[in-house]
Structure prediction request, 485 residues.
Amino acid sequence: MNLDQKEAPLFTALTRYIAKNYAYLHLPAHRQGKVLSELLSPEGKSLLHLDLTELPDLDDLYYPQEAIAWAQDLAAALYKASQSFFLVNGTSGGIQALILSLCRPGNELLLPRNCHRAVLGGLILSGAKPVYLQPVINQEFGFAASIAPEELTRSLKEHQDCRGLLLVHPTYYGVAGDLARLTALAHQKNKPVLIDEAHGAHFPFHPVLPPDALSCDADAVVQSMHKLGGSLTQSSLLHLKGRRLTSYRVADSLRLLQTSSPSYLLMASLDVARRQMALTGHELLNQVLEIAFQARDEISKISGLKIFGAENLDYLGACFFDPTRIVISVKQWGLTGYQAAQLLSSAYRVQVEMADYYNLVAIVSLGSTREDAQALVKGLSEICQKEAKINQPLPDVPLSPPSVPARLTPREAWFAPNRLVSLKESVGLISAQEITLSPPGIPLLFPGEEITIEMRDYLGQLKKINIPVKGFTGPQKDKLQVIKS
Ligand SMILES: Cc1ncc(COP(=O)(O)O)c(C=O)c1O
Prediction:
């Protein structure tokens, strides 16, 4: 690395990236401020002018009473929550605060196995014991959807003392289960339902989109307003509804986890993004949906490509899908999603949100334009002609990790003495860390779980075919932390 102090590599990388002017089919939705006109107005233009702190008249996020309290109340009224909180450490911070406010060491918490890695912080801080629900796997696209009601019923029966349930609604692929039914099942047992709605802040504003979690009677919901609501990266909302969670405990947990110097830029962007959604959300989403439906239509005509749509719903784990999220299977092209995303980016200046082994995920959001969508269609059509090996589909990889026994809670594993071993040597040992598939940020192995032969072989196979499995360390990225025995 060049350690010349005249360098500012991150700033340079950002300015170079911006100069490439990619077609924008990813997050955040605000598209460098373009969809929040307040931020480009004379008052907002110099963002630095808004970067103030808890001065007179500017309230205090820890104990809000004035402008922040009012802005949060407006968010609660819009989303039909009893109380809303501004978050400055993303949805991750909100999920952790919810778990910490609900669970004590040893309490069981039901979670889908395909939950986001953000839950891990909550599990370690609280000492909760995760009980995993197996999601329904969509075999055709190769991703995990939501959980089926039968799976929840079974687990609630087996774990009658659990503290509650956390679900993801929708998944990173924009797919959602029957949340109203799942919530009703949990409420019959008087268990609170916490929802990771990182990808659903726009749901209440258009009937074509899946139902939002609060309308399905969830008790607590965390939304990445920065992803689809148009606010700045890192800003999220936490909503509470009803009495199953103690709101002062949630507020205490947020004070424990969030900075005492919250960014007014982030909070102000939440305020104006909420106002924009309230005043023009439906209209803006009409345009977004029009662009998305046209792109879906054109992409579905390209040879070998399949788009996840209504015909792929199984009404178990997949009851709804978000049509603004275009999940494209490139399996029949004989290319991986990673290769297709790389080609789109390098040869066609199109940046999609995410790729996995089989799929590309492009997001048409508030900031995306017709030109962006056309660039995607054109890029895919040309890749189809030049690169695709139609009728030579990709070899299959195992879709979900093997089940492994949990020997310790994530918290116990986190605090236990540990050592580094290679993946080869790890069989029979207990992991002290998580190994995550990222994107989409889903742990395959949690701290406290035993590394079985099947898990070693599974991780080894993913690494061998360059699937982005994160968490290994050492110069060869082949070591992981295990508990010292
Ligand atoms: C399903 C899901 N939950 C939670 C998160 C964390 O959200 P944030 O980045 O706002 O902390 C993400 C991030 O991508 C996610 O995909």
